[in-house]
Specification:
The chain is an alpha+beta fold. The chain contains 19 helices and twelve strands. The two termini are about 25 Å apart. The structure holds thymidine-5'-triphosphate and magnesium ion (2 copies). The site of one magnesium ion has 4 residues, from loops.
Length: about 425
Amino acid sequence: MGKFYHEAHHVAKLATLHPSHRHLDIDSGVGYNKNNSSMSDGVHMHRRILHVDLDAFFASVEQALDPSLEGKPVVVGGKPGGRGVVSSASYEARVFGIRSAMPLSRAYRLCPQAVFVDGHFSYYRIASQRFMSILDDYSPHVEPGGIDEAYVDLTGSEALFGPAHGVAQRIRERVWDELRITASVGLSTSKVVSKVASDLDKPDGLVEVMPGEEAAFLAPLPVRRLPGVGPKTEQVLKGVGVAAIGDLAALSPSYLCCLFGKTGALLGSWARGEDGSPVEERGEARSISRCATLSRDTLDRPFLLGMLRYLSEKVGAELRRMEKRARVVALKVRYADFETLTRQCRLRGPTDIDQLIFGAVAELLQRQLAGAAKLVRLVGVEVSGLQAEAQLRLLPSVEDRLERLDRALDGLRLRYGYDAVQTGRTLAVQRRAGVFS
Ligand code: TTP
Ligand code: MG
Ligand code: MG
């Protein structure tokens, strides 16, 4: 296994914090319009939307994991004797006509010397997450369109990152640098046009469609290139003499409605390069929680506080990993008779600091247990009201120092395990309950 992927989930965040921008000799791809200037952006405020899609994704990860597969035809989907289909074929395999969704037996007949692998889905997940987090560095508006592709809205980010074309190029370089996978990018004023563009010069391509050129760009392409046009739609269109997207664009909305119902009109607008749909933000986690059922029911305060400290640290580490801060902290208590309650409080400001989360939850516990007689069976810590990390403060504060300390501990624990560093409180818990094993 490539060491790189082996440790991928550990280094993911480091890589994002310290982006490497080493120059790479990557083919810069073709531009549909050689004039890459986006001077008109300031005047017309055209949207600048990228569609980024990784090339031969599963097969490329296999090649990155095992360098002996580099440059070889690789087919992911299973052994050739199997009854499955190809999920991904490297571009070296595509030369032989092998494509996704083709029966493996047929792929084998086309290219018996290809390397057939079952695939490693957990690595595809890791690579996908790392890919998405690279995109997150350039825009808050990143909408995944599948495991290996996403739309990125760069509108208005020129002052920060420079022209969108350069950002597209940097993203491609970083994906190669950090994942050893080539990415193809389409850049235009809409999702639909960028999606078509990213597919046009695969692999390792970058195609930019200038504002105002959308319809002309699409017109000569076969209708199958348009999202939403599958084999059936293609057949119907062929039946009425439509083969190119330009022919489709010329049909009236009412005629398209007759052919395809409501979606017909939409197809017509897409064919003209008209698509105002926004890049949706990702459905993010709304809360983070960790709880623990105690090894025995208890009312022992130091023990319960130690456990809450441990859970606060877990929640805090997850917040820092997600680069989020929380405004609301909640305590969950389940008593021995299974009565369960949640108490929450709002913090003065959003935080990702273990000590502040613990402080809030400890206070809630003290209040909750004042005068309580029932033994506690489970405790939990939950944070919500999540928001992106605040901007840097001008002057370093106590909080900044605490946060730096927490992050340093996160790093140590990633390498040496949770037990490597403990506070007095959690040590007390470990001695008594052995909970961290
Ligand atoms: P795609 O991006 O459609 O294909 P790809 O990345 O393999 O190749 P391309 O260079 O043309 O983008 O799909 C991404 C992954 O999804 C692909 O690597 C494997 C999986 N997949 C399947 O399992 N079955 C399929 O039929 C398709 C199309 C994809
Ligand atoms: Mg792909
Ligand atoms: Mg894809």
